[in-house]
Design goal:
332 residues; alpha/beta
Length: 332
């Protein structure tokens, strides 16, 4: 099918539409595809097609994230929910936080899926959304906002960040540092907006912002930048636990006591929050539940034969602030 698409100069999805007699393809394009099929002597595999169209749910999962702890939680939620529903998972992984290749996405889209899950940040990745455009199956984007044609399953990032910032301000901190997340994710902007909401309530407080990308390495660089200034912050709020763990590492290297000399807080409540000293105060984002809920929505819609473009029931799950040992009042 990919060879036919290349010869005809169209997408694999268009070839699939022609083969299956679906609408949405112009007469001229259909003729070009049919000519390419004839020239390549392409014959659909009947056995494979019968498997694809059987009652078995085939849920595709596209993922790529720099946080191993976050992805471990997310995939555990996906696997557990899939096993209870008898769904077969088709996994497609990108490298780092990048989307899979265009060719891999084309093969994935044409593989006969019942539904698709997009893990952050790929629920907002243009290349992925372009590859899935026209795929008439339910899609859920975890941790995303306003993804076209998909159900978004997330928490209220803005409110969560507001509550964490308010906690730091209530402890007496007035010089804050903030490590922003991946600029291509709406959740990053929402978390910064929540920080700013709280700061507007405290006119005598200030913040220094360093850019990160949710990776541990970016947290190291951000920590060095924030602590190098003439008036370093007394508390640093990192947009995820991996970056917060990196801040703690930088503080230890500089022989700063956490939390007596520097308060550090994170976001997500992954294993990274409790495998370092001191354990992190953080926002609990129910990553495993988010993933399970997303898969359940897709599976239910697929079983009900609901067209993908009609599945639009965004879900917002509860979050919580978890206080541990990485916070204290600012030093005198």
């Amino acid at each position: 099918m990919i060879d036919v698409a290349a010869k005809a100069g169209v997408s694999a999805m268009t070839v699939s539409r022609v083969i299956n007699g679906r609408s949405g393809v112009s007469a001229a394009t259909r003729e070009i595809v049919e000519r390419a099929i004839a020239e390549l002597s392409y014959v659909p595999n009947v056995a494979a097609r019968s498997l694809v169209t059987s009652a078995e749910l085939r849920i595709g999962v596209v993922y790529s994230n720099p946080s191993a702890a976050f992805m471990s939680e997310l995939l555990t939620g996906v696997f557990e929910e899939a096993s209870t529903r008898g769904a077969r998972l088709i996994l497609l992984k990108g490298e780092g936080a990048r989307a899979p290749s265009e060719e891999a996405l084309a093969r994935f889209a044409a593989s006969g899926l019942s539904g698709v899950l997009l893990a952050p940040p790929l629920g907002e990745a243009p290349a992925v959304l372009k590859a899935l455009r026209g795929l008439e199956v339910p899609i859920a984007a975890i941790g995303a906002y306003h993804t076209p044609g998909a159900t978004c399953v997330r928490i209220d990032d803005r409110r969560a960040a507001y509550e964490m910032t308010r906690h730091l301000l209530d402890q007496g901190h007035r010089r804050l540092g903030f490590v922003a997340g991946n600029p291509n994710q709406a959740a990053s902007a929402e978390r910064r907006a929540g920080l700013e909401d709280a700061l507007r309530e405290q006119p005598d407080a200030s913040v220094q912002v360093a850019q990160g990308d949710f990776s541990y390495a970016s947290g190291l660089a951000a920590g060095e930048a924030l602590l190098d200034g003439p008036a370093p912050p007394t508390a640093i709020f990192a947009s995820n636990d991996d970056m917060a763990a990196a801040i703690v590492s930088v503080a230890h290297r500089r022989q700063l006591d956490v939390p007596r000399q520097l308060t550090v807080v994170g976001f997500d409540d992954t294993t990274a929050a409790v495998t370092l000293w001191p354990p992190l105060t953080t926002v609990h984002q129910p990553v495993r539940r988010l993933a399970a809920e997303a898969l359940a929505l897709v599976a239910d819609a697929a079983r009900s034969n609901v067209p993908g473009h009609r599945v639009r029931r965004d879900r917002v799950l509860d979050h919580a602030m978890v206080a541990r040992s990485s916070t204290a009042a600012p030093p005198a």
